[in-house]
Amino acid sequence: MENISLFGSRLKVERKKLGLTQSQLAEKCGITREMWGKYERGVFMPNCEIIFSFYGLGADVNFLFTGNRPSENSNELSKDELELLQNYRQSTDKSREIILTIAKTQEKKEVGITAGEVA
């Protein structure tokens, strides 16, 4: 029941993000305002056709199901990352191997695993 309630809350967030009232959205999806209200309250779960209609209006379906939104700049590298990548690409094969070894060793340390602890 909790998952349906969360989904309903996310439906409401997305509807408001689109600037629509329950009545407006219900009409666009071919249902009654009362039914849309039940979806938002988590009484019922909308079927695929309703979700697809909502998606067609601009709703973020990934957010509806997961609660996560993609970062606007998720594919952009920071200045340090760009510099590291540039240096890596300009390095010799041996230097690249060393850079990768250091990065992997550091990653293991950060998650609490050292080379001696790995079985």
UniProtKB/TrEMBL annotation:
One MF term in the entry's GO annotations: DNA binding
Domain of life: Bacteria
Matches recorded under SMART domains: HTH_XRE
SUPFAM superfamilies tied to this protein: lambda repressor-like DNA-binding domains
Positions of the HTH cro/C1-type domain: 11-42
InterPro entries assigned: Cro/C1-type_HTH (IPR001387), Lambda_DNA-bd_dom_sf (IPR010982)
Pfam families (alphabetical): HTH_3
PROSITE patterns: HTH_CROC1
Protein name from the UniProt record: Helix-turn-helix domain-containing protein
Organism: Neisseria brasiliensis
Organismal lineage: Bacteria, Pseudomonadati, Pseudomonadota, Betaproteobacteria, Neisseriales
